[in-house]
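Running this now, will post back.
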Amino acid sequence: MSGPLAGWLARLGLVDPAPLFVLSLVPYLAFLWWARQVKAFPRLALRGFELTLLFVAVTIVAAIVAQLRFGELLANVDPLHGGAEAFLTLSNLLVLLGFAAARPRQD
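Update: finished.
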């Protein structure tokens, strides 16, 4: 690829995404606040969405450990990566079970 698009993409690749990650927490926290206010929102699903924040924290810690202890990215250290992903699996399961339990029965 060449031309202005290639130059723009190259400059975009130099942008540090960390501030964008932090900014993405703002709408997520607003969503959690809203979900707590809605009486019909399934409580178990809400716990699952809240657990997603724990997944983010565990992933950050695991990534730091992977870098400092093993000199690798988290994706390259399977035990740490799998452990962090387990929190995401658990949070997704709670969301699923929460909405499934709240679904009206159609007999």
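The radius of gyration is 19 Å. More later if anyone needs it.
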